[in-house]
Amino acid sequence: MKRILVICAVIFTLQVSAQEVETIDDLFKVNYETPLTIDLEENGQESLDPADDDGKKKEKKKNPKIYYGIKTKRGFAKQGFGERTVVELFFYLKDKDYVGPEPYARDFYWYNFDKKKIVNSLRVKRKNAGVLHGHYQKLLGEQVLEEGYFYKGMKHGRWVRYNRHDILQDKEIYWKGWPKESLLSYYDFEREKLREVIPVHFGEKEGEYFAYYPDGGLAAVGHYKFDHKVGIWREYYDNRRVKREVKYPIEPFDDTPPIIIKEWDRKGNVIYDRKKFQASIN
Hints:
This is Antitoxin component YwqK of YwqJK toxin-antitoxin module. Keywords: Signal. The chain has helices at about 1-20, 40-45, 275-280; strands at about 40, 65, 70-80, 85-95, 110, 115-120, 130-140, 145-150, 155-160, 170-175, 180, 185, 195-200, 200, 205, 205-210, 220-225, 230-235, 240-245, 260-265, 270-275. The relative contact order is 0.11. About 10% of the residues lie in helices and about 45% in strands. With about 280 residues, the chain is mainly β. Strands 2, 3, 4, 5, 6, 7, 8, 9, 10 and 11 form a 10-stranded antiparallel sheet that branches. The protein has a 9-stranded antiparallel sheet with strand order 1-12-13-16-17-18-19-20-21.
């Protein structure tokens, strides 16, 4: 009888230990609870059509400076000289309509009035910024190099890039700065507290991955390429400090397993360094 009890105890212990084992790949997984991941294409509130005001098409002639229901100002920027001069034509929000970066924004485009150029930065000062909103074109002579639309500082709708010979190089569709196919999950049903962003492009995971804490702090960030995790992935504590760095293969389809290269405690002290550890055992 005692032998049977011992065997049962061993089996139970092994089961518990197996449950506690956390693979490196599981570090960045989000357990979907409620609400479920939603698709931007099916749940968006702002139309991709920049001329759509309040979701209704007006029959009367539209003001060419009104985009997504907001009246804008026209601007331009130049760089280069002679035949190599590149001109950017754009529209930006008036000061009274100024909006800063959204809490979860990864990119924020604005015109720097002092430097007279377009900047992509989340660090912005209102008095010095014209937030891009509306149609955008980059031209080399009469050749369009890039064209698309901005929505309050974020790429929105269809964007295309051409080379100097008018050959299409790239085409993407965005929704408020994120690739339109991307999947988002939220902590709340009101969809205000973003939990995770899975970048999807042409049906595959492609681009930067983000996970957040309920207060909006970054929980994890990494990069996908052809449906595979690549490069360095970082996990963060809820106090904004880095928790660990995990190294994945640089190229997709490489079966090399990921490794933890560095880990810190909540105070920022290094508790594991793979290079130093390997050096100590050699």
